[in-house]
Amino acid sequence: MTSTDPGRDPGRAHGRELDVVLRPAYSGDLTELGELHWAARVAAVPTMPPPAHPRAEVIAHFAALDLAAPGVEAWVAEDDRGLVGFAVVREDWLEHLYVRPEAQSEGVGSALLGLVQGLRPRGFGLWVFESNAPARRFYARHGLVEVERTDGSDNEERSPDIHVVWRGARAAVRGAAAGEP
Q1: Single pTM value for the model
Q2: What is the pLDDT of residues 125-140, one digit of tens each?
Q3: Which residue among 64, 135, 166, 171 has its CA within the 20 to 30 Å range from the CA of 88?
Q4: Taking a C-beta distance cutoff of 8 angstroms, is the pair 49, 67 a contact?
């Protein structure tokens, strides 16, 4: 499977087989994306600040996502439990990458991030909350680097955040050739 082709991503995560299907999201998935986003955000408190909007607003926001908008791609990860993660990319920006709490640390996030890296070989950016140490370690492990820190005054949660970038496949190859992690 190439990272841009939907299908099975067999791998290993913590000693167990990872058998997840990555496929483009369709409109029938959008409400569930909102539910998953809400569950992941609430479960991550206090590592992440609480959601800035009520559950119903978050779900409505995802339900209104325009999958046909130029530059927007949404992908879901499914396994025998159903939808376990998703990623939304707009142009060169990773807007969302969330995994159900019960599916975290199983390789689902890595599969989705690898897919995004394949979809955006020239690179992309994202914001991560400074307090979200697990996500920061995850992104660093996958070759993303922190390039800017803010006091959070520009985000709805008013929580310090960090601009993180993946510089692209060519940069990753150059780094590997130079012996960089």
Answers
A1: 0.85
A2: 999 999 999 999 999 9
A3: 171
A4: no
